Amino acid sequence: MYDIIGDIHGHATELIQLLKKLNYKADANGTYRHPSRKVIFVGDFIDRGPEVRRVLQIVKAMTDAGTALAVMGNHEYNILCFHTQDAEGNYLRPHTPNNERQIAATLADFKDYPDEWKMYLEWMMQLPVFLDLEELRIVHACWQPETVAYVRQELNGNLLTNEFLRASAIKENQAYEAIETLLKGIERELPNGQTFADKDGHPRNAMRVKWWTNPIGATFKSYGIGAEFKDEPIPAELQKGFYYKPDDVPVFIGHYWLSQEQPTLRTGSVCCTDFSVAKGGKLVAYRWSEGAALSDDNFVWVETV
Ligand SMILES: [Mn+2]
To answer: 134 C-alpha to center of ligand 1: Å?
Structure first.
């Protein structure tokens, strides 16, 4: 029995509130546990929020004690790349002002705790990039079966190696594409450099897509993510290809900054648990029970403080 918790982004106060609401209690060591359930965290623990260090303390204590499982988010991946050098000594994620700004809240929280920070970097490297628990699947952004199979084979499991991390930082590599897909989602391009206009009339060649939506008969608006798209049919080329079927094994994700009064499932088999706690939304859990079909009734949440 699992409680799957969405992207936390340094919001420890809401995390504690949510754990209590789910009836997890802190033991003598301060580690949250439940007599019969475990948490699964979908990644993105760091950046943005005010209490990154506290969030990492809570999550790591739970994973160490076996009262929680966790996967890696794109923010953990990015910060690992930020701190890792290639053979020439260049950082895998360049130290540009933009990239530095993204992790400023995290580094500020660890300013006086450099050894601790080093320990958490090592811990983050040990976060699986996906979890396949037979009855349910967990990944930060997208479960594409071929990509999961490729990564599983390359890693001989689900834990990153330094070699794979370095390979994944180079755009031409299959490892790059695989990490993009699993941790950031699917982006689809129109063929032959064709473009379409977004709602503001700007020409675009590619868009992030709802990989849980059947592209056949979809429109830019019903299929696209992250921008205002027109409600016009997508071209035939984009109607081909992968989408995650509603009767497939349930998959739990975060990442998509949803905003809804009342959390709902994406489909009968895809449950996004990220409802934007770092943007004034809510921190959400899905209470999963063995053998039961997914239902909107199983969301539990707290509002951003
Ligand atoms: Mn994310």
So the answer is: 24
Cα–Cα distance measured from residue 229 to residue 213, given in angstroms and rounded to the nearest whole number: 15
Distance CA 281, CA 259 (A): 6
How many angstroms separate the alpha carbon of residue 44 from the centre of ligand 1?
6
Q: How confident is the model at residue 230 (pLDDT cuts 50, 70, 90)?
A: confident
- CA–CA dist 281, 257 (Å, integer): 9
Q: How many A from CA of 28 to the centre of ligand 1?
A: 32
Summarised one tens digit per residue, pLDDT across range 197-207 is 777 778 888 89
**d(C-alpha 158, C-alpha 72), whole Å:** 10
Q: What top-level class would CATH report for the domain 2-144+244-303?
A: alpha beta
Distance 52 CA to ligand 1 centre (A): 15
Grade residue 194 by pLDDT with cuts at 50, 70 and 90. confident
* Residue 262 DSSP one-character state: S
Which residues are in the CB-under-5-Å shell of ion ligand 1?
A: 44, 73-74, 255
Give me 113's structure tokens.
């705790």
pLDDT band per the 50, 70, 90 thresholds, residue 114: very high
**How close is the Cα of 141 to the center of ligand 1, in Å?**
7
Per DSSP, the three-state class of 144 is coil
Ligand 1 center–CA 79 separation, angstroms:
12
List the structure tokens of 9: 């982004």
Range(s) within the chain of domains with CATH label 3.60.21.10: 2-144+244-303
Share of the chain above pLDDT 90, in %: 90
Average pLDDT over residues 298-302: 98
The Cα–Cα gap between 232 and 273 comes to 28
15 exposed, middle or buried (CB, 10 Å; 0-12, 13-18, 19+)? buried
